[in-house]
Amino acid sequence: MDRPAVFMEVPTHLLEVKPGFTGIVRYQDDSIATEELSSWSLFFSQGRFVFASHSLDPLERLDRHLRRLSHQIPSLTREKCLRIRQQAESLLIQDSGSMAADFQVLGWLAEEQLLSAEAIRKLSAWMSEEVLQNLLLSPSQDLKKQMIRLGTLPALGQWEVGSLLSHLQKRLEAWYALGPQITSPYQRPYFTSRAQAERLPPEQQEQLSQLLRGFSFRQLSALLDQDELLIARRVYPLINAGIIVLRDPQPPFNQLPKTYVARAATVPTLSEAPTTPLQATAALANGLQDLHPTPRATQTWTVACIDDSQAMLSEICRLLEGQNLAIHTISDSLKALMKLTSLKPDLILLDVGMPNIDGYQLCGLIRKSSVLKEVPVVMVTGHKGLIDRVKARMAGATDYLTKPFQQEELLQIVFRYLS
């Protein structure tokens, strides 16, 4: 089948600044109604690129790349990652003006010496590349440009714009060559069916079943400490063979630009991919050997859900079904602490508004328990105000989830604290 294989040239002017410019280039996409999707911030020091941020969920992006970095730095523990996230969250809540919260937190990491300069540079590069790919895929005619001059910027590492654009061009061409089967790094691979999975050798079935649990290519990159493009290439033959199906990115990532959009002109593609199951499994035999999930990524986790509403408990169980989790529900807040001490869960989902003992009081008791004090506690609340979030933090909550929530929001919490 013929399909386009020549990717358009990247709009290089988006990264062009005058020599010596220090500050921020802000791009606003007026064609996007959702504010969180519409703004890019590019940081430059003396005309050299430093960092790129996007207004879409910067905390999720930081979480994910910290997770990947933790494979390479044993001292980057879950507790340290949570501390970094909380600092970023406080910066995001504050009115930081033109400074993006994720950029500020990198400066904070350098100032506090929580990570080495090399680690910060690597983290900055991963985050920036992801943001720039999305920017360069956006229709440039819809972008409104603003220049913000600054005196100095934190020294996080600098890249020459020409070499950076050349690298991004090659990456985007590689993603484009995987279309039309793969159209986004945020797509989520699943087995098409049990019958299709059984076409694979048992060892590969087991190996892939531990990975294909609703994670996107980008999330798999964080879990496996591997390039998401490499992962996509390795599962590509199984997509062609009908063994793996791709689901759309979870909102709001489904609104980001796609890496493949069909065009009128068609030219021969890169080497033809195998399409029969036998050819596909043979092609993957070597490639998949590096995609070994870590024991932490595949163990069964215990999640305790505390809510006086049986309907809400049932809904949480339904949303988390099939996620390799042992879900325990508790409806009586008076008995919750005793049950939690016995369960020793890996994650606690705690409703705020309960009779007898409310969520804030129970969270305080959990933090005083020697058995439970380090367990992540996510407060589930119907309030979105800043005061409620601060109150949850003061009670000892690790995070919060606002009702009503979608499955993707709940799975994001699972990915953040358990994967």
TrEMBL record:
PANTHER family attached to this UniProt entry: RESPONSE REGULATORY DOMAIN-CONTAINING PROTEIN (PTHR44591:SF3), STRESS RESPONSE REGULATOR PROTEIN 1 (PTHR44591)
Modified positions (4-aspartylphosphate) in chain numbering: 351
Top-rank taxon, per record: Bacteria
PROSITE patterns: RESPONSE_REGULATORY
Annotated keywords: Phosphoprotein
The protein, known as: Response regulator
InterPro entries: Bact_response_regulator (IPR050595), CheY-like_superfamily (IPR011006), Sig_transdc_resp-reg_PatA (IPR024186), Sig_transdc_resp-reg_receiver (IPR001789)
UniProt feature coiled coil, ranges: none
Ranges of residues in domain Response regulatory: 302-418
